[in-house]
Amino acid sequence: MSLPNPGGLRRLIILFVFLACAAYAQDAPSSIFMSIPPTNDELKTHGTAPLPHNLYARERIDLSGSWRFLVDPVERGLRNQYPRYTIPRDEKQQPLGGLLVEYDWDSAPAITVPGDWNTQSNPRLFWYEGLAWYRRHIAAPAQLAPGQRVFLYFEAANYRSHIYLNGEKLGVHEGGFTPFAFEVTGRLKAIGANSLVVGVDSKRQFGNVPGSDADWFNYGGITRPVWLVITPGSFIQHYSLALSEHAGREIITATVRLDGAHSADAAVTIRIPELKLETIVRTDAQGCATFKLFPAPGALARWSPESPKLYAVIIATDTDRIEDRIGFRTIAVRGDDIILNGRSIFLRGISIHEERIGIREDDGGRKLDWNDARRLLTEAKALGCNFVRLAHYPHSEKMTRLADELGLLVWSEIPVYQEDIPYTDPHTLKLARRMQSDNIARDQNRASVIIWSVANETPLTSARLAFLRTLIADARAQDPSRLISAALNRSPNGSDREIVIDDPLGEHLDVLAYNTYIGWYGALSPADIPSVTWRTIYHKPLLLSEFGTDAKCGTRGQKESRWTEEYQAWFYEQTLAGASRTPWIKGLSPWILKDFRSPRRFRADYQNYWNRKGLISETGERKQAWQVLHDFYTNNDNPP
Ligand code: GCB
């Protein structure tokens, strides 16, 4: 049975029928009661607020720590079918009877937020994919000044989140790797505890981004920190600064957007004290202001991997002030060269998944504190890298902030992954566009980020081309200062030994990137690599964005023997020599820094659900190939 107009009226009628019937029988069969399944609209992102940019510089309250946790594989809590399962409402069984309540938050097990549920202490949850509920009591921020606003900010939760405050639904967010926020100004009780209940559904489905089949572990839950962020009534919601050059003159262009009642025609000041730059501009009717700042000739020290200089940038209005540390550099392509700060650069990279280096094999997981993030990037630096490919989804903001600090160029990607995406589905496109724009908005001030990647290994169909062209157009409009790429892996006009990169998407990319596994997948061995060539029909720089073989750390043998460290090292030697012979290859990001969990990797002897293509093991031990890549990166000032 369904009613024509889902919405408030429908809910009221149903609630009325529901309460009347509930008085009659608590456990009546479901045919008597009408459940309120989430409407299609509710299953999509809604209710979210503009994200306060530069979270770490805001006044905020950390909601990390111990939350209560309920696993709900049959999704009772979402159905609101019986009062005894209204999990989001945080009901309590009355001591003297009343309605039966068949959950009890206070005695529910604890779980740590942030962190995936799969690798926390309960081994029964290792493979769990589905809905689970979290609850935490929160106090309203003490002494809010008049007009101050409060946002509930999630750095990420995988995959679909349903957020309730004091039993009322704030909204839904879809997507596992980008931040989202809800405004809760005026919705927090000033006295006593507020119940924050979050349902996170990690189910993989065709139509999600990524879809149902990816080569990385589907870590579920509130994987990144949650905050209450406090802002003034009218606040600096977003800003972006980028360096460019015109007629030999350096220009920093900045745009600032205010949010709140007095955002139009407001004075905004931007200052970079070390460069003695200061400008005031008034916002337009939309609350936006655009600035141009002209550093004195020779005054600006450009950000680069060798010298990752960051400047304090202060943006202020009458009501708000925010400070960031921002680097300035230019990035462009010229023919088949990548040009950083006017000079050709070779990207000495490595691919990385967002997974911690564990202490033991059963450790790891998707919970990155600052030390974990630093450890991953420090390993990349130790290899001699100046570049990291953060695959295959937006990583924690900690990674890009640290990359800024450590001097690592970054490839940032959204999880439009392989064939498992319905490229004709408008909802999926909308979702991917939203993920990309949230990712760009979050990291637009990170000098380290030079490439937005729209996809990885997608099929050569016209639907996919149209889908990715939309993402490319969006990225260019939102951020014209960076390069666009996508990792390709199709060579229909090539052969086993002659890879021709002629994917029609190439025409729309600034940088071509190709994943190559000759010598691992397929019949050829590393011995064949010297006879392999890579060429493109486009006059553009090419990255080998992936290559690698599985090797279980400590498995030794003949170099011809698969799964050994020797085989992997030999494969690296051969592929690196091949890349050196190919002048249009302008960078490498081999697959991958660390062994990572994957549901696709079944061999109990070597894999045991780990993809073993890491140069270091899941606990950080270096394999032989690590040394091969290290020598290649450090023995040549400018490889190939
Ligand atoms: C690829 C994918 C990556 C996989 C890798 C592999 O081409 O882009 O996600 O993990 O190959 O190990 O097969």
Report on this structure.
The chain is an alpha/beta fold and 640 residues long. The protein has helices at residues 8-24, 76-79, 370-382, 397-406, 426-443, 462-478, 565-580, 624-635; strands at 59-62, 65-71, 110-113, 131-138, 149-154, 160-165, 168-174, 180-183, 194-201, 226-231, 235-246, 249-259, 267-272, 277-282, 288-293, 311-316, 321-326, 331-334, 337-340, 343-344, 347-352, 387-390, 409-413, 449-456, 483-488, 498-501, 512-515, 533-536, 542-546, 585-588, 596-597, 610-611. It is built from eight helices and 32 strands. It has an eight-stranded parallel β-barrel with strand order 21-22-23-24-25-27-29-30, surrounded by four helices. Strands 3-2-4-9-6-7 form a six-stranded antiparallel β-sheet, with no helix packed on it. It has a four-stranded antiparallel β-sheet with strand order 1-10-5-8, with no helix packed on it. β24 (449-456), α6 and β25 (483-488) form a beta-alpha-beta unit. The chain is globular, with a radius of gyration of 26 Å. (2S,3S,4S,5R)-3,4,5-trihydroxy-6-oxo-oxane-2-carboxylic acid (GCB) binds at residues 215, 392, 456-457, 515, 546, 591, 611, 613.
How do you describe this structure in short?
The chain is an alpha/beta fold and 640 residues long. 17% of the residues lie in helices and 28% in strands.
Strand arrangement across the biggest beta sheet: 21-22-23-24-25-27-29-30
**Count of DSSP strands:** 32
Q: With helices defined by DSSP (H or I, 4 residues minimum), what is the helix count?
A: 8
CA-based shape: globular
CATH superfamily of the largest domain: Glycosidases
Spans of 5+ residues with little confidence (pLDDT < 50)?
1-43
